[in-house]
Every structure is written in structure tokens, then in C-alpha cells.
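Severity: low
Component: inverse-folding endpoint
Summary: output formatting inconsistent between runs
Steps to reproduce: submit the following C-alpha cells with default settings.
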């Protein structure tokens, strides 16, 4: 008899208030909701240590889902010497300045060349609360988004940092160059986001989706673009990219949500996690980190400098 493989999913703000079957299908790559329902009904799913009975059970932040998969091959994530910009670290956490083009964690059968592989090489300890595919990962950045990320070295730090994100004590500030000229100096985009009904790889504004709130402040206006500062109040997948598309000002260089005809030849969107403020679980002190916009981002700003309004 084949040995069953257990996968653990830790519920964070992206999955709060979802149905159990939806949370499983979202958390396990290429796994449908109907398959999740069959596992739950077959007693193969535990929620916080207890066998789950209802597929419609609502999950909350901090919940742990254990899923038993039979005949699942063991996955080994190996350390790789991928260059990593470690801005700060102590015994509890690290602050990473992620480069554009680096996927955060393994998925879809690809177990190499991710941030997790790099973390395993450069750091001696990582939290295990998010399972073997996402050690240390408290929150994520899209592959083509650059900038500051928090990484937990143990489960105590992981829970603390995740709670700070949930309670909005942790502030995450992004800079982006968007298409068109935004008229308002500042504003709030409060539109729920859910999985696209036409393409599961995409997200979209959906009345039935989860609450998503993005604050924005205009920094500089150009003839055809706007440099904008964003602060996340929630952490939905692709949130800034989906919200900016919704208001008609998608991020420059975004191949998924952006304009079909791009003015600049870019390999990814001009979206950068520029600043992060949080309380250090070790010392209790408030820590603040900022990072410079990447060279390719600054290059575009120099090109359009004479177009300032």
C-alpha cells in the first residue's frame, strides 16, 4: 500500500473567510474544488487537528488544514546559490529585496530557481508553518514584482508577522508607474477581488470576491503616465494590478492586466515593494526599511522626465 502524503496549508489573509473546499483548491496547485470536496467527504482532510465534515466550513486566519494524499511522490526542495539581496536579518526574521523575475515558491511541479531555493541556501533557519513548499514565506510578491519582503525564521515569528499583516500593523508601501493620468491626488480603491471566471490564472474585481482595499497617492504626473504610491490594507493576489486595471490605469509593463500595446519593451511590470514597516518580534521595536527603485524602473522615469505635467 502506498504511503499517504500529508500537505499542510496555513490560512492567511488571502484565504480568510473562504469555504474549506475553496481554500484547498486555491492552496494546492492544479487542484479543483470538486476534488477537494471528495477528499473532505472521504475524511482525508483535517481542520486544526479535527477531521473536517463540511465542505462549506468557513476558514479563518491561523487555521491549519491537513490534507492526506495517497500515492504522492516525496518532494525535495534543494538549496540553490541564487543571488539574494538580504537587507536585514536577526534570529527571528529576514528582510529580502526580491529581484524581478524570481518566483517566490515552487509550484506546478517546478521545484527549482525560486526564492525558496535561494532562502534555503543563504539562511540557516526558516519557519515551517506554511509547509515544505513555502518555508519562511509570510507574504508573497508576484514573479515580476520587485522589492521588500518579510521572511520568518521560525514559527513564532511567522505567526507574529502574519498577525501584524492581518491587523494592518505591518505597513507595505509600493511604487508603480501606471498608464494614463490619474486626476485625483489620492483615493481608496475598495473593490472585492476573486478568481476570474474566464481564466483561473487571473484575478478580477468580483462582487462575490473577498474584500480588497488599496490606498493610493499620486507622486508625479506625466503626459501619458502617473507615478503612484500604493498602500495595501488587504493582501489579495495581484491586488494592485487588478485594482489599477479596474480604474482604467493598469501598471506599465503588466503583460497580464496591462495594455495590449506597450510603449516600452519591458519584461515585467513597473511595480516595486518600496517600503515596509513592522514590529520586530524579537526586540519589540518598530523597524522600517526602504529600497531604491530598480535600475530598469528608474530608466523609464528618466525617459519620460521631460513629459512631467
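Observed output (run 2 of 3):
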Amino acid at each position: 500500500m502506498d504511503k499517504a502524503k500529508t500537505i499542510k496549508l496555513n490560512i492567511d489573509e488571502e484565504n480568510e473567510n473562504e469555504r474549506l473546499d475553496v481554500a484547498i483548491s486555491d492552496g494546492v496547485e492544479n487542484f479543483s474544488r470538486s476534488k477537494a470536496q471528495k477528499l473532505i467527504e472521504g475524511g482525508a482532510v483535517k481542520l486544526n487537528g479535527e477531521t473536517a465534515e463540511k465542505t462549506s466550513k468557513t476558514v479563518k486566519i491561523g487555521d491549519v488544514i491537513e490534507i492526506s494524499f495517497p500515492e504522492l511522490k516525496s518532494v525535495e526542495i534543494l538549496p540553490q546559490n541564487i543571488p539574494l539581496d538580504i537587507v536585514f536579518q536577526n534570529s527571528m526574521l529576514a528582510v529580502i529585496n526580491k529581484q524581478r523575475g524570481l518566483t517566490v515558491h515552487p509550484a506546478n511541479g517546478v521545484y527549482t530557481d525560486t526564492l525558496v531555493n535561494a532562502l534555503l541556501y543563504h539562511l540557516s533557519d526558516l519557519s515551517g508553518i506554511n509547509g515544505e513548499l513555502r518555508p519562511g514565506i509570510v507574504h508573497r510578491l508576484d514573479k515580476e514584482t520587485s522589492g521588500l519582503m518579510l521572511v520568518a525564521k521560525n514559527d513564532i515569528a511567522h505567526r507574529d508577522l502574519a498577525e501584524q499583516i492581518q491587523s494592518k500593523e505591518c505597513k507595505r508601501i509600493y511604487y508603480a508607474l501606471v498608464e494614463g493620468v490619474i486626476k485625483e491626488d489620492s483615493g481608496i480603491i475598495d473593490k472585492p477581488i476573486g478568481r476570474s471566471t474566464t481564466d483561473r490564472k487571473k484575478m478580477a474585481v468580483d462582487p462575490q470576491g473577498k474584500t480588497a482595499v488599496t490606498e493610493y497617492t499620486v507622486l508625479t504626473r506625466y503626459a501619458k503616465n502617473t507615478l503612484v504610491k500604493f498602500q495595501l490594507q488587504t493582501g489579495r493576489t495581484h491586488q494592485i494590478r487588478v485594482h489599477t486595471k479596474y480604474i482604467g490605469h493598469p501598471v506599465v509593463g503588466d503583460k497580464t492586466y496591462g495594455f495590449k500595446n506597450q510603449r516600452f519593451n519591458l519584461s515585467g511590470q513597473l511595480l516595486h515593494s518600496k517600503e515596509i514597516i513592522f514590529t520586530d518580534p524579537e526586540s519589540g521595536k518598530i523597524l522600517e526599511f526602504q529600497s531604491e527603485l530598480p535600475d530598469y524602473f528608474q530608466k523609464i522615469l528618466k525617459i519620460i522626465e521631460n513629459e512631467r505635467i
